[in-house]
Design brief:
The chain is α+β, with helices and mostly antiparallel strands and about 160 residues long. Helices cover about 20% and strands about 40% of the residues. It contains 1 helix and 8 strands; from the N terminus they run αββββββββ.
């Protein structure tokens, strides 16, 4: 008896390879996101700073043209050390300091070693002074933590 040949078609090898690679990449990404979450849960150390408010004020006289009061909160589970505040555009001159007493913490008059430690749940007020600014100008204030994270906030000056 003669064999009847059918015209059967399958997926080409190129298409099947593309499908297998796409599935492998999707699974790898899912595992990476899952592991990131698992590491965060097991270590319990999460750094999260929230910029609650940034209130700019024009200064009438003095060395600086504007003052921005930045209220920050540590919403994470570990103490955060703010080791720098940067103002952009970089052509602006600026300085920053810590205003004690907002969170009823110890009253210090200056930031030791130009850093500010914020415990979990604490709120602090940082005052940023800038020079070379004009009314209506938008500037970016960026808080930098000792762990390397940055927390930016755009402010339009009055």
């Amino acid at each position: 008896m003669a064999k009847i040949l059918r015209d059967e078609r399958g997926i080409s090898p190129v298409i099947s390879t593309v499908i297998i690679v796409a599935v492998a990449i999707a699974v790898a990404m899912a595992v990476a996101f899952w592991m990131t979450g698992v590491v965060g849960i097991f270590t319990g150390q999460v750094e999260q700073v929230q910029i609650v408010a940034a209130i700019p004020e024009a200064l009438e006289s003095g060395e600086y043209t504007h003052r921005i009061k930045v209220t920050i909160k540590n919403a994470g589970t570990t103490t955060v050390t703010i080791d720098g505040v940067f103002v952009s555009p970089t052509s602006l001159e600026g300085k920053w300091n810590y205003t004690p007493g907002l969170d009823n913490a110890e009253d210090v008059n200056k930031i030791a070693d130009n850093t500010l430690k914020i415990k979990p749940g604490e709120t602090k007020l940082i005052t940023v002074y800038v020079n070379g600014t004009t009314a209506g100008q938008s500037i970016e204030i960026k808080l930098h933590s000792a762990s390397g994270k940055e927390y930016p906030k755009m402010v339009t000056l009055p």
